[in-house]
Design a protein that fits this description.
The protein is mainly beta. 8% of the residues lie in helices and 71% in strands. It is built from one helix and eight strands. An eight-stranded antiparallel beta barrel has the order 1-2-3-4-5-6-7-8.
């Protein structure tokens, strides 16, 4: 629990300590591959580990604070065979220019937020949980208005839900999410 609070406090203090300055806002979208690792414990069956893979869609809006720092909020949606997932994330990235032209950048950052998970089996309730993790990737500035990036994000999830129907009981947990995505952003 302390780790969650430290990550969230770090992100909030980073955002609050940034001085007001002229900067570039951006809006964009991403699509990619998402892998979720689920664990199921049941009194009727042995423990199972399921890995679900499907397409993830994201919408994001953010701000380039300067040439080396950006913050952004992301809404993501994913639906696989087991669950439907919506994510609401706040992220910070540190950008490292690869070359003098600043066209290509490597980024690394931290993410924290909330996920709404809903297991498609009617015996399990949907639930909002805290998520945190990090991301890295490469960003290419096409021109002054458009950029694209390919990235990898890891999210630690704390989703755990139980169901019972008399003699049988089951629990389902989502331990982590991994995403590989391609994004395009418009700066204004």
């Amino acid at each position: 629990m302390k780790t969650k609070h430290l990550v969230l406090a770090g992100l909030i203090s980073s955002v609050m300590s940034v001085p007001a300055m002229a900067s570039d806002w951006f809006v964009g979208g991403a699509a990619g591959y998402q892998q979720d690792t689920y664990k199921m414990k049941s009194s009727a069956e042995s423990n199972q580990r399921n890995i679900e893979e499907d397409i993830s869609y994201q919408f994001r809006v953010g701000n380039y604070l300067n040439d080396n720092n950006r913050i952004y909020a992301t809404y993501g949606y994913n639906s696989d065979d087991i669950a439907r997932q919506q994510t609401f994330l706040l992220s910070y990235d540190y950008l490292v220019a690869l070359g003098d032209s600043n066209k290509m950048n490597w980024f690394v950052g931290a993410t924290a937020g909330m996920t709404h998970n809903g297991i498609k089996d009617s015996g399990f309730d949907s639930k909002n949980t805290f998520v945190w993790g990090g991301q890295t990737g490469l960003m290419y500035n096409i021109n002054n208005s458009w950029s694209t990036e390919v990235g990898y994000r890891y999210l630690k999830q704390d989703y755990d839900v139980n169901a019972s129907n008399g003699a049988n009981s089951a629990s389902y947990s989502l331990n982590d999410t991994q995403q590989v995505y391609l994004a395009i952003d418009y700066k204004f």
